[in-house]
Amino acid sequence: MNIADRKFFYDGNQTEIISHAVALIISEAYRAIADHGRFSFVLAGGNSPRLLYEKLAQGVTTRLLEHYLLSVPDNSSRNDQTIHHLPPDTWFFQGDERCVPFDHPDSNYRMIKETLLQSGISETHLFRMPAEEADTEWAVKKYEDTIRTFFSTEKNVQPVDFPVFDLILLGLGEDGHTASLFTGNAEALQEKKRWVVSVNAPQAKPPGMRLTITLPVINHARNVLFFSIGRKKGELAKKIFLEKEKDVPASLVEPDKGRLFWFATHS
Prior knowledge:
Layout: E1 7-12, H1 14-36, E2 39-43, H2 50-58, E3 60-61, H3 62-67, E4 83-84, E5 90-94, E6 96-98, H4 108-115, E7 126-127, H5 136-152, E8 167-170, H6 186-189, E9 196-201, E10 208-213, H7 215-219, E11 223-228, H8 231-241, E12 259-265
């Protein structure tokens, strides 16, 4: 099956794409649990996913899952108003982080904690990027070691070149960047071996140093989900999906074996 058969594009108003994306994430979480006992979920940073995380924390009904033709968790109530939340064996990772203290207003970790974790999801299930460390290369190594340790605990798993996350959530900048992979960071975009790198992003908002997972990690995931809000981002998302824009970092996301989902607003 080639990548074209594993690519999906959904657009709509903000409420529609948030509901659909959340339903897909929760459905995939239970699929992963049934398949290998846990769900590894990489979270996007920035402002776009804030409302998505709040809705994800609230859960979705059986009716909504069925509306989008998604599988309902096994052994659950068939009542169409039953609420399904992310399962307890969900493990969260950060896809990128600004190099600021963890309680800083620009911290992605702080945003995640204020939204997704407000529903009682255990903070111990979130692996935080230590981006406040002055030595960014030490922080990169520490976070990569954290990921390696997590995946080394899977049964019958041999050492691998790259981890296989169940789902990686990505944002999309108006300039086409994703995670903290920007056009000007040629070295990071060409990385073939490392799982996590530090980048200097003077063009970012806010500008400064960041930590980010790399393209090979993204492209080894079972599912990659782009989530973008806003007309300009929606137009760019469709151009990338239709392969009419091939010169931005987000266009380099092409899962080797997994599926690629695009969720974008049309206004």
